[in-house]
């Protein structure tokens, strides 16, 4: 099993969070999985990890439609964070809006982090494939 | 001298009143009258005994023959003209010779009379000059002259008249035949009557009549006549005759062209006008009259735009006119808005073209305007329709995305949970998954209910709007929310006048008021009790309801475009469903209204709802 040090899930839907967590437990070996209910909480959480000299998450599962701060607004701030290692950001969404796909293309060009776009529903095999160090 | 003695001047001859000389057969002067000596400035001492040819040095060559003829034929009368030149003028003399006979009827010499014919000669020359001038004038101007002698019933015509009648040069006119050349009917009657009036009353006239030449060609002539008086009595009529066929033809042609042009201009479905350099109208067509609301063009002619339109319109038009006339460059197809004095506003497609005079400068302009008001209105209607359609389309696409996204997220959850369930061995985990499936099902139901509500708002667009008293509705909503307001220590300040009435769908206004008021309380500032102020203003056909709170405020820079979106929440409240404002906005728009928001984080938010009072 793949060993990942730290994973974070950003989604306001408890069922999706439950699903991702369950699949992760089957495909990777990770002791540090953090869940944030929206982008704001995630940014604040990751910032404080950096301040505490904890390792930033290596893989992020990111929902787009969330209250307070959505996935795109999160990415806006996230790509400005002073991180030393590349992070893999997996967008998980049920959106098929071309606007969201365009946003994804734009972000890929703006950052050195890996960003993938994944439509729901996702299967265990797919989660295994996208849960690795960037 | 043979048979003739030189004698002293005969006293009888000397006193003769005319210039007279008596010569012998050799033409030597025997007697001479004093008048002769003085007329020719001869000295008496050197005159007598001298032959005539020595006295008159400039006699023509055959004078001698003529004088000899006189000697032989006593009845012969010789005329010899003599031209006496002096420094100032010349004189003409006529000689009359007769044979001089003695008692025995023998010719002994000549008696010569000298008659001064200078005046006659001059008059003759004058007459000749005048005649040739007249002939030249007739020939050049093609105006013939005629003269009718009433007493002798004789008509004299010049050659030009013969040319007009198309007869030979030696043709002699009778007055009756000349009259019968005029066309039967009006022309002949007129000329006969005019001639008669001249004969009886001495009137003069000048008339354009139709005429038939000898060869049967019909032409127009200009004929004039005036009486000739002698001793105060009318003795004749003289006048002129001119062939004016060409002028009449070109005049007719011009008139036809003018009529054609006028008919064309009048029946064009365009407003046509011509202005002078002062922008005064000097020609208008029927369309222009119809537009200006006048029956007669005279009501517009000579008037400038300042007299016909309001000042601001006239100023623009005058500036255009000046530009066209100064630059000599036409304005073509310019869209202009015109307002008549009675307040009709029309849109025109106007062209102004300079009219150049002979000096190359503009002497006015031609204007052509097409009323495109109907087109403009249709264009506007079409634009409005396009706006509405694209707005609808946008809403539809937005809604499709919402539906697709929400349904997909639920089905994705079902699919995932069912997959887990199929593979789960642990009973406890199984029941956990089933609990989540139930929750997912409830979520789906709620989503469907929300979507249903939105669809209902957008499909029931034919719900009738009714005027309602706004305050009554506010009171009713406040009553329904009483417990909620009291629990939150919220206060509502109602500044709306008692009589304010708006046209709305009653069910929607309740929902709208309920939503905004609950939101204002729900997102209150933690440091102060909620205060909501309601007020209205009236602007541009809208009654605007303003709902102002002192709550948390929203960062519009961040959330402005999502505020009224579906399932968007901006505060970390567990009871934010993210559906209220979306539905509210749909309800407002279903009533042809609109909603705007102003907000400051930490200060409060003001929503303005525009109720359309017109439709």
TrEMBL record, chain A:
Signal peptide: none annotated. Pfam families: Response_reg. The keyword Glycosyltransferase does not apply. PANTHER family: RESPONSE REGULATOR RCP1 (PTHR44520:SF2), RESPONSE REGULATOR RCP1-RELATED (PTHR44520). This is DNA-binding response regulator. The modification 4-aspartylphosphate is found at residue 63. Coiled coil: none annotated. Residues 6-134 form the Response regulatory domain. It comes from the Bacteria.
């Amino acid at each position: 099993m793949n060993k990942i040090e730290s994973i974070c899930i950003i989604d306001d839907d408890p069922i999706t969070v439950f699903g991702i967590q369950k699949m992760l437990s089957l495909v990777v070996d990770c002791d540090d999985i953090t869940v944030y209910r929206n982008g704001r909480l995630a940014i604040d959480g990751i910032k404080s990890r950096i301040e505490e000299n904890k390792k930033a998450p290596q893989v992020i599962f990111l929902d787009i439609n969330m209250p307070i701060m959505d996935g795109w607004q999160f990415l806006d701030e996230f790509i400005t964070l002073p991180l030393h290692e590349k992070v893999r950001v997996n967008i998980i969404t049920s959106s098929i809006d071309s606007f969201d796909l365009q946003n994804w293309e734009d972000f890929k060009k703006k950052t050195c982090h890996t960003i993938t776009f994944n439509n729901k529903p996702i299967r265990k095999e797919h989660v295994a494939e996208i849960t690795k160090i960037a | 001298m043979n048979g003739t003695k030189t004698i002293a001047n005969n006293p009888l001859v000397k006193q003769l009143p005319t210039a007279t000389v008596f010569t012998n057969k050799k033409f030597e002067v025997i007697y001479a009258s004093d008048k002769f000596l003085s007329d020719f400035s001869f000295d008496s001492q050197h005159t007598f005994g001298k032959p005539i040819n020595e006295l008159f040095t400039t006699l023509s060559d055959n004078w001698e023959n003529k004088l000899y003829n006189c000697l032989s034929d006593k009845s012969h009368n010789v005329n010899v003209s003599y031209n006496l030149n002096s420094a100032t003028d010349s004189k003409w003399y006529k000689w009359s010779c007769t044979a001089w006979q003695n008692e025995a009827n023998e010719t002994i010499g000549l008696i010569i009379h000298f008659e001064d014919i200078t005046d006659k000669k001059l008059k003759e020359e004058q007459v000749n000059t005048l005649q040739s001038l007249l002939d030249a004038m007739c020939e050049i101007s093609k105006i013939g002259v005629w003269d009718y002698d009433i007493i002798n019933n004789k008509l004299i015509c010049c050659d030009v008249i013969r040319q007009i009648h198309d007869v030979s040069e030696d043709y002699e006119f009778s007055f009756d035949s000349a009259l019968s050349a005029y066309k039967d009917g009006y022309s002949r009657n007129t000329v006969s009557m005019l001639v008669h009036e001249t004969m009886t009353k001495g009137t003069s006239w000048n008339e354009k009549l139709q005429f038939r030449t000898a060869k049967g060609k019909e032409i127009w002539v200009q004929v004039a006549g005036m009486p000739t008086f002698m001793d105060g009595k009318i003795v004749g009529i003289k006048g002129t005759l001119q062939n004016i066929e060409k002028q009449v033809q070109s005049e007719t042609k011009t008139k036809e062209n003018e009529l054609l042009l006028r008919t064309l201009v009048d029946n064009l479905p365009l407003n046509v006008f011509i202005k002078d350099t002062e922008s005064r109208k000097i020609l208008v067509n029927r369309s222009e009259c119809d537009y200006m609301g006048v029956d007669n063009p005279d009501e517009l002619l000579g008037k400038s735009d300042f007299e016909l339109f309001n000042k601001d319109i006239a100023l623009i038009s005058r500036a255009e006119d000046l530009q066209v006339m100064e630059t000599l460059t036409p304005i073509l197809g310019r869209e202009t808005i015109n307002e008549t004095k009675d307040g009709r506003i029309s849109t025109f497609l106007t062209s102004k073209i300079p009219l150049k005079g002979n000096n190359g400068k503009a002497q006015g302009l031609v204007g052509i305007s097409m009323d495109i008001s109907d087109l403009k209105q249709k264009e506007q209607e079409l634009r409005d329709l396009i706006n509405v359609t694209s707005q609808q389309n946008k809403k539809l696409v937005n809604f499709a995305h919402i539906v697709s996204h929400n349904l997909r997220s639920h089905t994705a959850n079902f699919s995932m949970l069912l997959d887990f369930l199929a593979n789960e061995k642990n009973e406890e985990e199984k029941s956990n998954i089933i609990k989540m499936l139930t929750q997912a099902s409830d979520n789906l139901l709620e989503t469907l209910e929300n979507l249903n509500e939105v669809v209902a708002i957008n499909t029931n667009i034919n719900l009738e709007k009714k005027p309602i008293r706004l305050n009554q509705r506010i009171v009713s909503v406040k009553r329904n929310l009483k417990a909620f307001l009291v629990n939150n220590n919220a206060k509502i300040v109602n500044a709306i006048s008692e009589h304010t009435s708006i046209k709305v769908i009653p069910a929607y206004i309740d929902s709208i008021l309920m939503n905004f008021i609950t939101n204002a309380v729900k997102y209150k500032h933690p440091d102060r009790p909620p205060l909501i102020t309601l007020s209205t203003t009236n602007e541009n056909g809208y009654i605007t309801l303003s709902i102002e709170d002192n709550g948390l405020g929203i960062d519009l820079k961040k959330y402005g475009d999502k505020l009224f979106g579906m399932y968007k929440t901006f505060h970390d409240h567990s009871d934010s469903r993210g559906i209220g404002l979306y539905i509210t906005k749909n309800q407002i728009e279903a009533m042809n209204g609109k909603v705007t928001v102003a907000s400051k984080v930490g200060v409060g938010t003001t929503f303005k709802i525009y109720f359309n009072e017109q439709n």
